[in-house]
Structures are given as C-alpha cells and as structure tokens.
Amino acid sequence: MAKRPNAVKARRDAPTRKSKSARRRNAPSRGGGSTRVLPIVLSTAMLLCIGVIAYFGIRTMVNSDFFSVTRVEISGIERAPRETIERIVNAEAAENSAWTADLATVKERIEKLTFVRSASVSRWLPNSIIVSIKEHEPAAVVKMKKGEFLVTKDAQLLAEATAPEPGLPVAMIGWDEEKSQAADKENLERVKLYAKMIDDWKIHGVLERVSLVDLSNVRVPRALAEEGGMTVSLEVGKESFGENLERGLKAIAGKATEFEGVELVGSTLNLKPRKTAAK
C-alpha cells in the first residue's frame, strides 16, 4: 500500500516527459540551415564565374580578326553612288566587326542618299555586310530657273538632269518652285498629267514632234512643237492627248508664220493669230 503514491506521481509526470521528447524531435537542428545555404552560395558563385568568363570570351571572339568585314556586297543600284555606300559601311565596320556593326545606323545613313528610296542591310557571318537598295525612279524632267531636274512620281526633286533621260525625252515647264502646300499639290498633278501625256503621245507616234510640255496651267495642258522653223503652242485638253495633238498639228501645218498656236474649245480647234501677223 506504501508504493501507490509513487505510481500516481509517475503517471502525472509521463505526459510532461512525452511533450519534452516531442519538442526535441520537432526542433530544427542548429547546423541544418548552414548545410542547405552553402551549396546555393557555391552554385551561384560558379555560375557567376562561368558567366564572366563567357562574356569576356565572346567579346574577345567577336572583336577578333575572324569577324572583320572584308566584303561589302551591294545590289539594286543604277544611279545611287556605290562608292559612297561602301564608305558608309566601311566606316561602321572600321569600329566594329561584322557581328557587332550597327546595321540600323548604316541603313539610316544610306537612305539619305540621292536616288535611294529604301535600303536593306544585313550581315553574313563571319565577315560580310549585304546591302540591297531600292531606288527612286524619275517620273519627269522639269525645267526650272537653275536648270533641268529629275522628279519622282510623288513630285519630289531628285537631282539635276545632267544627261538625256531614257523614256523621258521631253521636259516640262510651268513647275511651281514655291514651298507651299498648294504648290506641292499642283506639282503632283503636273507629274501625273505629264506621265499620261507622254504615254498617249507615244501610242499615237507624235511624241517626237513635241519639244516641251507646258503645264503652267494644269487646267489647260499644252504641247510646244516646232512647225516651219517656229515654235507653236497646242492645247491638248485633259484627255485624248494623242488625238488632240494630232489634230492640232494638222490644223497649224504650214501656217506657223501666221498663227502661234491652237486653242481647244470643247472639241473645236481655233487657230490663234500671231501678234506680229495681226499687226
């Protein structure tokens, strides 16, 4: 009967010993955190070293002579200056390799050149730069105060016409040289009219009779021609240019000393007397 109190005490202490044991099992070990962190640090350091080595290795490789530009290939040019395009590419290549050359800058500089409408620039590794050009096509020859100039179909001045232009044997007069929106609009209309007139005169075989296209007044297109050693002005309307020119030439044939031109009223031709003849 004397041992019974001890048994009761043992039962009372058992839950306490059990909870302490559970807490010891669930508590994290003091060295576990450092064990997991160390591999992460080492891996990060290794990756960083590899990245630095790769960066300097690639940089050394792309700047080596292996990627130096030794060939510049240019296509699509007839009028654009080949030598200038080569200088633009080589200037960029002198500071960079074919791999690192700034192609966007090269493209921008080339597209500022006369006759260049657009440029495509690409690299062909290890040592080539390829340039493909699309050029502006002259749509008209315009006689201006400072001489004759080539213009585009959008009525933009290209360059001075220093030689006969294939397909454009006749120059236009009447170009508005003012810098204004109204002038640009009328000049664009002049270019369109000019193209239609040239094409229609070719079809009717009378283009060689024309010495100048007079579009001073876009509402009254005229052709200047030589007749009997004198210049005559022939109204050709705004359509049927070839037919109207043929009729006008026939009407004034042999009469250039008396008449300076032909006016077109509807479909009726009226000969306009020369002022000297009238006097």
Describe this structure in words.
The longest helix is centred in the first third of the chain and has 31 residues, at 32-62. The protein has helices at residues 4-26, 32-62, 82-95, 103-110, 181-203, 241-252, 275-278; strands spanning 71-75, 116-124, 128-135, 140-144, 147-151, 157-160, 171-173, 210-214, 222-227, 230-235, 259-265, 268-273. With 279 residues, the chain is of the alpha/beta class. It is 41% helix and 25% strand. Helix 5 crosses helix 6. The protein folds into two domains: 65-135, membrane protein fhac (Ubiquitin-like (UB roll), Roll), CATH 3.10.20.310; 140-278, no CATH class. The mean pLDDT is 83. The protein contains seven helices and twelve strands. The strands form three sheets. Strands 7-8-9-10-11-12 form a six-stranded mixed β-sheet. Strands 1-3-2 form a three-stranded mixed β-sheet.
